[in-house]
Amino acid sequence: MRRFLRHGHDPVRERLKRDLFQFNKTVEHGFPHQPSALGYSPFLHLMAIGTRSGAIKLYGAPGVEFMGLHEENNTVMQIHFIPGQCQLVTLLDDNSLHLWSLKQRSGASELQEEQRFTLRGPPGSPPSATQITVVLPHSSREVLYLGTESGNVFVVELPSFRLLEDRTITSEAVLQRVPEDYRNRRSFELVEALREHPRNPGHILIGYSRGLIVLWDLHNKRVSRHFLGSQQLENLFWQKDGHQIISCHYDGSYAQWPVSNDDRQLEPLESKVPYGPFPCKAISKIYWQTTKNGPPYIIFQGGMPRASYGDRHSISVVHGSQQIAFDFTSRVIDFFVVCNADPAAEFDDPSAMVVLAEEELVVIDLKSAGWPAVHPPYLASLHCSAITCSHHVSNIPLKLWERVISAGSKQNSHYSDMPWPIDGGTNLAPDPPQRDLLLTGHEDGTVRFWDASGVCLRLLYKLSTVRVFLTDADPNDNMNPLGEDEWPPLRKVGSFDPYSDDPRLGIQKIYLCKYSGYLTVAGTAGQILVMELNDEESEHVVDHAEADLLQDQEGYKWKGHERLKARDEPVRFEPGFQPFVLVQCQPPAVVTSLALHSEWKLVAFGTSHGFGLFDHQQKRLVFVKCTLHPSDQLALEGPLSRVKSLKKSLRQSFRRIRRSRVSSRKRRAGGGITGEVQEANSKFDQDALQEMELAPIQRKIEARSAEDSFTGFVRTLYFADTFLRDSSRHCPSLWAGTNGGTVYAFCLRVPPAERRMDEPVRAEQAKEIQLMHRAPVVGILVLDGHGTPLPEPLEVAHDLSKSPDMQGSHQLLVVSEEQFKVFTLPKVSSKLKLKLTALEGCRVRKVTVANFGSCKTEDYSENNLAILTNLGDIQIISLPFLKLQIRYPCIRKEDVSGIASCVFTKYGQGFYLISPSEFERFSLSTKWLVEPRCVVDTQEITGNNYLHNKSGMEKATRKSRKSGRLMEHALLNDERAAAPVGGGDV
Amino acid sequence: TTRSPCGTLETKGMFGAEFRRFSLERTKPGKFEEFYGLLQHVHKIPNVEVLVGYIDIHGDLLPINNDDNYHKAVSTANPLLRIFIQRKEDADYSAFGTDTMTRKKNVLSNVLRPDNHKKKPHIVISMPRDFRPVSSIIDVDILPETHRRVRLYKYGTDKPLGFYIRDGSSVRVTPHGLEKVPGIFISRLVPGGLAQSTGLLAVNDEVLEVNGIEVSGKSLDQVTDMMIANSRNLIITVRPANQRNNVVRNSRTSGSSGQSTDTSLPGYTPHTVQNFHPEEDDSDEDDIIIEDNGEPQQIPKAVPTSESLESLTQIELLHDSTQNGFIPFSEVNLCHSAGNVSMEYEIHDPDKKSLEDGAIITL
Predict the structure, then answer these.
(1) What is the pTM of this model?
(2) Distance CA A767, CA B250 (A)
(3) Which of B164, B228, B347 is nearest residue A831 as measured by Cβ atoms?
(4) Can you spell out the DSSP letters for A673-731?
(5) Potential cystine with A456: which of A237, A378, A495, A769 (Cβ 3.0-4.6 Å)?
(6) Are the beta carbons of A841 and B287 separated by less than 8 Å?
(7) Closest CB to B225 among A6, A830, A841
(8) Is the separation of the CB atoms in B269 and B236 below 8 Å?
(9) Distance, in angstroms, between B343 CA and closest chain A CA?
């Protein structure tokens, strides 16, 4: 009956669908693509990151995050929090200012844009007159000071953004009191820095680019003092007590200036070029942080010797005799120092340095000896090495979860154990309903295990397969082989290293059995590794087998890459997943499909040439099947197309450059080989794109035939215990689907457990189905007598699934890119089908079975197919009747890599890459929804209290960070603040 | 020989020198197959392959070999339907055609003495029902004459479909005046390909529909995928670039004078009127199974496990509506989504068959 109920016809079903399905993009995981600005609120303990596409993201304590997007999609140039407020101002590259607020709604905070403003000069004035260079939110929270290219400082009122013209600080007014000879040389300079006096809100420091610094008296509207710098100014910093200012300059120097009360012309107290005497690069930002018990921390960005280290992205920390130049693998966007936030505190006492580099966030613990890095709980750089595949495992058993975490914690011992310093806001989201793992395979042969249960995607454990192979990459080829006495004292930090030394190591397929802890991964050069979780370190030889997929086929020549060389000697493996078997396909083409049956101890793998079955218990190859069509020359020759080989050569040339740079680092590096290569790369991409656009776009209309190339390409493999031969006995079976629309079914005989090692596993081909539409088979599934998909291996054994129904007749579901077809078993006759491409012109890219629970009734759930099409649409199709339930647009159809990266979970969520470094998480289910829900307190009274009690606070406590928190939350019944602080403070 | 009040038609059949007279129901002539059987029966030539012809109102000898020309013959016969039957082996095809009566003085003598005409050896071609169709123009009765609906049949892989499509733009008449809209066009025909040899498609023809689905709003890649997915039974509706070859039909002479720009009527919506169903004649059903390395076999259809009242009513609806080649708008969607019951090979085959058998033909 149900077969004839079409959607839209049955109100009961419609209602149920509303209870089951709902589409939401919930949270973005990973590191923002192309960050362009960084802001920090010492008051809120929140950090904000702006991107080139106009997004701003706020982060606090783990789980506390907000996102906003500027309509204009322009680059965010600067972010400034309003002191003591839940507000921030952004400056975009179109010179517009935007005011954002964290507003509470139904208990949770939301980030909203409130106002926008563009500074306009009098008619006829040049655009530079109002081009904003610096923004200073005044501590009064009433005004913003805007430094411009013209040298004028404009004042706008908050939150209305009303320009207060009478308060404008013109460069003419400033120059009046500057000595004649100095003034003549230096008119029309842009405002480079604006800083409020730390003790006297009535004074601000204005720094002009050509070196002039003035202290401006806001009440009397006059220059209180001036400092005649002779070097081009980059930035300014006030010492906490207000007695000294520090200026940093374009020539790599910094200077200290005393701020005394007499009105003499001042000379710098000290001027220093830290990495002199040879010409140095600019110091673009400097912090001077005082400590109670010792010398100050001087932290500055840049300043490296121009000739030999001009290409480094560094931030130096100097503390007495200790000095380290932290060396980042990508450009530093900005940084800040977390210190005693109390404005009345006597000392800064910095605790951590937070650096936003172009590709990662690095936090350095300044309190622990050696200044170790802090492991960030979010903003993970997913793209440390390019992601090549992903695999999601839902509902991980606690035991496995703990073992993975323990293996990972041993890898993270070099991190600081300091608590995460950016801890603003309160996470209100309920605990994740289950433990989920997202596994990402990378180009460098690593697999990363991420905790994907909640809002924060956290790296748990990293597995490397490189050790199994002999590669030409020198393990000591370290970017930083410098000894102790080297100068500058560089130290490489961060994990971003996108350049794989051997692309054959790339991981292409991953399968983890959460019950047994067996993991299998397969890679670019036809390698398949089977691994087992071991809590101890081990040194052993990895067993090695070869699978010749061409069998007797003669006269073929593989022109692709060589296979990897396996190590014959014992290899030491750290605790975690340790490989025990290596299978290498011959020819070593990329592994295109992989399946593991942990109960039968079998692993199946497929490439463009065929597929094979390996018994990893007996370590014996059971069989191989060549799927090649004799005319398929392309598949035989290897994967090298012209475009790919060009890309490869670029990558190789880059590698060469990098090596040469490492080996002869004393030589002048040329200031931007990286840039040149990137430029060349992007130029190449652009050229290729243009070429494509110029060519007349036409498409050939032809029926697919058996002679088309890559028909033998094995797209999917599936193990099932079903009725393959007769309806009375079921047996283990292996199913394989190819690119040419062929499905092969093999009947397997697995010896019983007690004789498992004695008798061989046998396989016999039982069926071969050729779909006439010849579209690639992307999914195979067996449905039991109730129309329910068969459970995963060991699922029933672990009491996590009902036993499949073996009484009623089983059905085979074959999903091709174009159609869904249900066949009966064991006698194959076609039963049902759903055409997709013939009617809509879209093709299936990803398909999975997902369980959808009802948000209304606790005990109702059903299995459906979730599919992603090449147009980026997600469709849900019912099982076993193949009726389209609902459709949502999800990914732009032009975003090919996003569509290719999509992975569904077993409970109707999914992930796809929105940039090389970010996963978008989405949910199709009403029941399983992981999204941030957090609150940052916005009550006005907190802020007032904070300021009005300033004098009292000074005496009360010195432990500013904690006390700051206490103050914020004193009037709230915030359990989080009360619990951990404890001790004498309360 | 007069028309009887109940609408029977006097029919006179001649085979060799023998005449047989019988009557047909004018309103319910039935199918050609049945008529053919009837002729074999009344002439007592049950196993003889014959050609059937009739004399039309102009006196031309025209063949009867399918339902359409059979119905035409019955409907135009006035008052008597004269039938000529020839043995297939010694049939004279040149006897058929227009002006046969003027070219040759006596049809009868031609038919009766075929040996007279064996002087010129003619090319032996079989009658249309022995051909396999490779292409056809369909739905001419419901489409505006500026459009052409072409069906391409693909057998095996011997001959490529052989055409390419591209993006382009066409001018359309809208309530707001002329408007340029993106469209899909045929960009190239492969010499010797199916598309070219039919002569029904040409470069720069605009593709409007693929198997009943409008292509407007779809990308080139989507349309490509749709065409390839339907490649075994491809039905494309085009607006030919050359509008001069259009048949000018009485009803719309004014609107269709050979213009190459778009003249589609604003009121025309292809979805409202459709003679075919996208899933009809689903030739990609013949998936193949090889069991235990045996011989490849076609996968049969599963026998329906349950029959429901719903399915029956739908089939009836469908059946009725296809009878006159016209589906009211309200039923179009229904036929689409219920496609799997309407298909010849689908699960409810037996139901449909039995219904068709039930449509009674009175002779």
Answers:
(1) 0.77
(2) 59
(3) B347
(4) HHHHHHHHHHHHHHHHHHHHHHS--EEEE----TTSTTSS-EEEEEEEEE-SS-SS--E
(5) A378
(6) no
(7) A841
(8) no
(9) 12
B177 Cβ neighbours under 8 A, 6+ residues apart: none
B166 and A698 within 8 Å at the Cβ level: the answer is: yes
- Tell me the two tokens of residue A541: 């030889």
A contact test, residue of B287, B311, B337, B341 with most A CBs within 10 A: B287
CA atoms of B363 and B360, how far apart (whole Å): 10
Query: What is the least distance, in Å, from the CA of B239 to any CA of chain A?
Result: 18
Q: Identify all chain A residues contacting B231, using CB atoms and an 8 Å cutoff.
A: 701-704
pLDDT digits (tens, 9 = 90+) for A673-716: 444 545 555 555 565 555 555 456 888 888 777 666 678 899 99
CA dist., res. A218 & res. A215, Å (int):
9
Contact check, Cβ <8 Å, A703/B220 = no
pLDDT tens across B289-313, in order? 888 878 888 888 876 654 433 333 3
Q: In this complex, do B285 and A772 lie within 8 Å of one another by their Cβ atoms? A: yes
Q: Strands A576-586, A543-548: parallel, antiparallel or unpaired by DSSP? A: parallel
Q: CB burial class (10 A; 0-12, 13-18, 19+) of residue A220?
A: exposed
Q: How far is CA A686 from the centre of its chain?
A: 25
**Rounded Cα gap, residues B208 and A510, in angstroms:** 44
Contacts of B293 in chain A (CB under 8 A): 765
Coil, helix or strand for A130?
helix
Among the partner-chain residues B167, B228, B302, the one whose CB lies closest to the CB of A697 is: B167
Chain A residues in contact with B290 by the CB 8 A cut-off are 767-770
Instruction: Please enumerate, as own/partner, the contacts of A473-476 that have beta carbons within 8 Å and a separation of 24 or more.
Output: A473/A501, A473/A502
Rounded to two decimals, the ipTM of the complex is 0.76
Q: Does B187 contact A840 at a Cβ distance shorter than 8 Å?
A: no
User: What residues of chain A score a pLDDT lower than 50?
Assistant: 1-7, 476-482, 640-649, 656-675, 677, 694, 940-986
Whole-number average pLDDT of chain A? 84
Instruction: Please tell me the distance from the alpha carbon of residue B280 to that of residue B319, in angstroms, as a whole number.
Output: 13
- The H or E element that residue A14 is part of is helix A11-20
Cross-chain residue pair B225–A6, CB shorter than 8 Å: no
Measure the CA–CA gap between A174 and A151, rounded to whole angstroms.
10
Cβ atoms of residues A549 and A626 within 8 Å: yes
| Lowest pLDDT segment from A830-844, B25-39, B201-215, B247-261 | B247-261
**Beta-strand runs (E) in A432-499:** 437-442, 446-451, 458-464, 469-470, 490-493
Determine the length of chain B.
363
User: What pLDDT is stored for residue B133 in this prediction?
Assistant: 74
Choose the mutation target among B157, B190, B228, B335 for the interface with A, i.e. most A CBs under 10 Å.
B228
* Cβ–Cβ < 8 Å for A418, A373: no
Beta bridge partners of B206: B185, B239
CA A502 to chain centre: 23
